[in-house]
Amino acid sequence: MRPSEIADCIENRTYDEIAVDDTATLVRTLRQEDIQMFAIMSGDINPAHVDPEYAHSSMFREVIAHGMWGGALISTVLGTQFPGPGTIYIDQTLHFARPVRVGDTLTVKLTCQRKFDHNHHIVLDCMCANQEGHLVISGTAEVLAPTEKIKRPRADLPELRLAESRQSRYEHLLEITRGLPAITMAVVHPVDAESLQGALLSRDEGLVMPTLIGPETKIRAVAERLGVSLEGCRIVNTPHSHAAVDMAVALAREGEVEALMKGALHTDELMAAVVARDGLRTARRVSHVFIMDVPAYPRPLMITDAAINVDPTLEDKVSIVQNAIDLAHMIRIPEPKVAILAAVETVNPKMRATLDAAALCKMADRGQITGGLLDGPLGYDNAVSIVAARTKGIKSVVAGQADILLVPNIETGNMLAKQLEYLSDALGAGIVLGARVPIVLTSRADPPEARAASTAVAVVIAHAQRKPVK
User: Fold this and answer.
1) Which backbone phi and psi does 191 adopt, to 5 degrees?
2) Class of domain 3-153 as given by CATH
3) Residue 340 and which of 166, 241, 323, 363 are 20 to 30 A apart at CA?
4) Stated pTM of the model
5) Does domain 165-281 bear CATH number 2.60.120.10?
């Protein structure tokens, strides 16, 4: 039989073709999606399998597969290989010896133990072992083996994609502001539909009391064209975007507003005024964080810095990391895992990103960076995929479970964030940290929901900054 025929067809082994001690194997690696799909299919939402927070406090310390996921692999071998199509299940016994974790690779081996000619039954020994050779599942299966040869084309099944709706993910992002009253926010030059709608959606969600700064006639004209109300908005009339920026910074400096939102103007125009000597600078370096809700990733993913610092030095990265860790604490990630990205996982003197990663990790060991767990250099695949990390033999509490990705430079971060948004349907929130007030810094192409999600993060930061630092 040609290899292409093997790949395209499923063929059984009849009762007469099977001898005692014949075997068949299947190798399968557990993914996070496998656990989720099994839970959806079976209705088994035991928190040990689907709730990472609960699982962390359990005896296994992390999410594990449903026991019958491994049992289903035995059924897969029986139904597709050995004996294959036409097989009828009669009996199955299973013993579960150890848990299966995301990234574990199981080898399923079935061995024919006995044959019964009078009824064409076969008893098979069933064993599942993990990548370290440890026994995970054992048992026996009794089946009625087919007596007629069957060869069928392999079914072309649809590809399943697990994802919440964009609306539900948006609402989940807003949950971080539950119980927090609205804050005052200056919206700088909202003279296009996207920026004005973002401000008004944030108002309608109860997040902010907007101060719209810009040419009043243009702002009202946009509102009239959209058919939206400006009720509850304060309007500060300025002749152009430069004046709007200066006014917004002045209001923030005087404590009249607790956050800023960029409208229809370039980022450089706003940030130049923010970092000026008479602007909103603090002792911290200003940096930007994207908080991404990625359907294929089981937790929020923070990317920094993708918008402010072009080619950060090691000293800059210390502030960038600390800013991101502090934000993670504010959004209820108590001990964020920080993956310091590079092209390789080992320190290479010719690659500055790897040297910076090693230095940052040691600085964290010495208490110069606090509140998070750092590891690097790590490739992007090893940072977000436990399977990739374990395949490469990387043992790390961060690898495959990163909460924060520290990118080497602005190009890397910007392209990574936009790739996740446009090709992976990620919902992103962007915020500037390190200034006196949080700054919502979104792209001019971002929809109103992204601006409102970013505003929710600003609300959390503003309330945290109201509390005196101890």
Assistant:
1) -110, 15
2) alpha beta
3) 166
4) 0.70
5) no
